[in-house]
Amino acid sequence: MDSHKVALITGASRGIGRGLAECFLAGGFRVAGCSRGEAPPIDGDYEHTCIDIADEKAVQGWVKGVARSHQRIDVLVNNAGDYAQVPAVLTSGETLEQLMRVNYIGSFIASREAAKIMVRQRSGRIINMASMACGLHSEGASAYAAAKSAVIEYSKVLAKELAESNVTVNVVAPSMVDTGMLAELGEKSRESALQSLTLKRSCSLEEVNHVVRFLASDLAACVTGQVIYLGLVV
After folding, report:
1. Per-residue model confidence as pLDDT tens digits over 43-72
2. Is 1 part of a structural domain of the chain?
3. Which residue did the predictor score with more confidence, 42 or 231?
4. Chain centre to alpha carbon of residue 148
5. What is the residue range of 197's domain?
6. What DSSP character marks residue 181?
7. C-alpha 215: how far from its chain's center?
8. Tens digits of residue pLDDT in 164-186
9. Catalytic: which of 46, 83, 104, 144?
10. 231 in the Ramachandran plot: left (φ > 0), alpha (ψ -120 to 50) or beta?
């Protein structure tokens, strides 16, 4: 039963992260979310912490604090991410480092810290969010796609390392999702991306939620090291 389980969700202030927080709360979870900024209140057993996911000490303190308060961590969803669409020759070192730190390094650190708790309790689910950008090879996305591809590779390795402790690690790579951030891409970029997908439409938050919740459930105990692409890049 999920009634006393605890889920950690990064990037929980808006978009996919907020939708996931509400979804886990509806499933009876206690949810701890984080983001760089404040988040609007969410009804239910929810607590929010303002941290930079790329700040190693802050992430360590957050995960340890949740584990101390609830005596367990059952699910970690690494959703926090940053995006930039810049040609490689114009990508500054600062932009490159920021994309790698938020999308990959922050995810790695959060997984590492949550895994320490999960290994001790001999159970847990880690779900990392990647992107359709990993398969599109779109102009301007070299740094972002590389960071998200790193998430996929480390997830597969981590899945092997944690398997004996009954901890699974999987990746969900959504296509375009119906959130406010979708509008930031611009009509031309959205249409070009859609035409590269097998299912030429955006995904709803509910569709993303269902996949993540399945991977977090007891029914997915034998699913690990997998990447689920929503929309399927062709």
Report:
1. 899 999 999 999 999 999 999 999 999 999
2. no
3. 42
4. 10
5. 6-229
6. G
7. 12
8. 999 999 999 987 777 655 555 56
9. 144
10. left
Residue 136 lies in a domain: yes
CATH number, residue 18: 3.40.50.720
> Structure tokens of 133?
């950008």
pTM: 0.91
Cα gap 173→152, rounded to integer Å: 9
Q: Is 92 inside any structural domain?
A: yes
Element (H, E) at 227: strand 227-229
**Using H for helix, E for strand and C for coil, what is the string for 37-75?**
CCCCCCCCCEEEEECCCCCHHHHHHHHHHHHHHHCCCCE
Residue 234 lies in a domain: no
127 in helix, strand or coil?
strand
Total number of domains in the chain: 1
- pLDDT computed for residue 57 by the predictor: 97
Q: CA 169, 4, 44, 51 torsion: positive or negative? A: negative
Annotated catalytic residue 144: yes
Sheet arrangement for strand 227-229 = 46-50, 30-35, 6-10, 75-78, 124-129, 167-173, 227-229
Q: Which residues contact 127 (CB under 8 A, 6 or more apart)?
A: 75, 76, 77, 78, 169, 170, 171, 172, 212, 215, 216
